[in-house]
Amino acid sequence: MKNPAHRFLALDAARLTADAYGNHAIDEFLAGRLTRRELLRHASVIGLALAGGGALLNAPRARAQGTPGASGQTIRVAHLTPAGAVDPLTVTDAASLALLNQTGEFLIDDDGEKLMLKPALAVSWKPNDKGDVWTFALRPNVKFHDGQLFTAKDVVATFDRLADPASGSAALSVLKGVLSKGGAKVVDDHTVAFHLDAPNGNFPYYVSSDNYNAVILPANYAGGYEKTFIGTGPFRFEKYQPKVGASFVRNPDYWGEKALPQRVQFSFYADEQAQLLALQGHQADVMGTFTVQGGAGILNNPDYKAVGVKSSAHRQIHMRNDNPLFKDKRVRQALALSLDRDVLVRGLFKGRAQLGNDSPFAPVFPSSDAGVPQRKIDIAKAKQLLAQAGVANGFDVTLTTEKYMEIPDLAVVVQNAAKAIGVRINLKVESQSLYYGAGTPGKSDWLDSPLGITDYGHRGVPNVFLNAPLTSTGTWNAAHFRNPQYDQLVAQFVAAIDLASQKKISAQIQTLLLDETPIIIPFFYDQLIAMRKGVNGVRFTALAQLYFDRAVLSA
C-alpha cells in the first residue's frame, strides 16, 4: 500500500501533463470533495491516469505482452440462443454480445469490477477546452485476424457506420445528438479526433465497451460477420452454427497477453432453466445468463459459485403524465410511496440489488448525489396525497408489462402495494414482442400504456437514461414527461466535464424527479453469472459481456 508521501508524488507527477480538467479533479480530491474511488473513475474518463504515466494512485494499466498459460484447456459456456443474426452493427441481446467479445475489441474497456475505463485499442484520450472535440491516441502494431494492420481509418469507418441513420445501427439511440456520421476524423495513422454535436463530459463511454455495438471493424468490412467474426481480440473465429453453438481459438498474434485457454466453446439453449441443467449436468463450465429467480437452487450450493457486479440495470415503472389518471403529480407520488423498496431488494433479489430513488442516478455512478433523501414507504402520506388530488377512493387502471425475468413478480408487488392505498390495478403481462411492438407511439404497448414496467440494462454513465426515457423529445419517453427545466438540466449535465459540476446538477435533477415522479425506479440489480467452483479468471461486465482470456479450470 502506498504511503501519503508516495501518493502526493504521484499526484504531482500527474499534474505535469494534466490539462485544466485533470488539475481540477486533483484539487477536488485534495479538498476532500472527491473520494479516491471517485477520482480514479473520473480520471479514467478524462484520460488523467494515462497522462500521469499510469501511476496515479495505482490506476490500472493497459494489458502487457505475455505468453500462453494453461495450454489445451477448453472453456465450455452455456448461453441463450442469439436472438437473430450476429452483427456488431445491429445486435442488442446478451448472447450475441458474449460472442462479439471473444474476437472483437473496443477503443476503451469499461472494467466491470472497478467500474473504471481502461485502455484497449486506444492508449490515451483527452478533450479540448470546450469538451466538444475528443482526441484519441491509438495502439500501434495491432493486427486484425486476417493480417490487416489496425489504423485510424478503421476507427473512423466503424463510427461512420454506427452513426449512419441509414445503416440500421442499434447504436443510434446512444449516438443521436452526440456524434453524427462524419464526426470522427483521421488525424494520422494512430490518432482520431471525434468532433461532437455538442460538448459531452462523458464521451469516452460512448466509444467504450459500454456502447456494445462499437466493436472496431476493418474499414473494408462489408458484412457477413458470422462467417469471420473479424476483430483484433485474444480469440479467433473457429466455427459458428446458428441455434447450435460457436467456438473460438487462441489468437497467437494477439497484441496483449495471450489467452490462457486454447478454446472457448459456446452451446446455445432456449432459456435459463436449460442452461442451468447443462451446468448441473457437467456439460458446461460457465452459465452466461443467471438470475436469482431462476437459479435459486445453486445460490448456496458449494459446488457452484454465483458472482456479481454492481450495475445501473433497473426497472422503470412509468405513469403517463398526459393521462387523466396520472396528470396530477400527487397521484404519481402516492403510488411511489406505496412501495417498500427494502422488501423488494430482499424478496426479489435476495439482497443482490441496491435501493432506487426514482431517478436514473444509480449508486454506482460517481455523479449521483447520495445526499438527496431516499424515498421510503409511507402509506398514510400516500392516502393523504390521493385525497388532495381528489381521488380519495382510488381508481382502476391497467398495468401493462413484459414477461421477462422478475418483472411479472414485480408487477404483482406493485398491484398489492397499490391496493393498500385504494388503487385497483389490473395486470396485463405479455410477451416482449407484444409489449414493445414497433417501438413507436401508437404501435407499442410500452409507449402507449397509462402504467407499465420496462427493463433497462446497465450503462456506465446515466446519459442515455436521462435522455431517451425522460426528455421532452426522448424516443423512449413512455411517461410522456415534458418539463423544460428538466431538459435544460440534462443538457447542462451532459456538457459538464468535471465531476463536481456533474454532482451539483445531478442533485437538482434527482430532486426534480422526486417531486414530479414521472417514473418509479425501486432498485438497481446486480449482474450475475454462475460457474462451477473450479473455474477462475472469468471476467464480465454489468452489460453481460463475457471475457474468457484469463479463464482457468482447476481440478
UniProtKB/TrEMBL annotation:
The protein's matches in Gene3D superfamilies, at most eight in alphabetical order, are given as: Dipeptide-binding Protein, Domain 1, Dipeptide-binding Protein, Domain 3, Periplasmic binding protein-like II
List this protein's GO terms for biological process: peptide transport
- Location(s) in or outside the cell: Cell envelope
One term under GO cellular component: outer membrane-bounded periplasmic space
MF terms from GO for this chain are:
peptide transmembrane transporter activity
PROSITE patterns, alphabetically? TAT (PS51318)
| Solute-binding protein family domain location | 117-435
Q: Where are the transmembrane segments?
A: none
**Keyword Plastid (UniProt):** no
Transport recorded as keyword: yes
One Pfam annotation, family name? SBP_bac_5
Give the record's keywords alphabetically. Signal, Transport
What family is this protein classified in?
Belongs to the bacterial solute-binding protein 5 family.
Cross-referenced PANTHER family, in alphabetical order? PERIPLASMIC BINDING COMPONENT OF ABC TRANSPORTER, PERIPLASMIC OLIGOPEPTIDE-BINDING PROTEIN-RELATED
The protein's name: ABC transporter substrate-binding protein
Q: Which organism is it from?
A: Paraburkholderia panacisoli
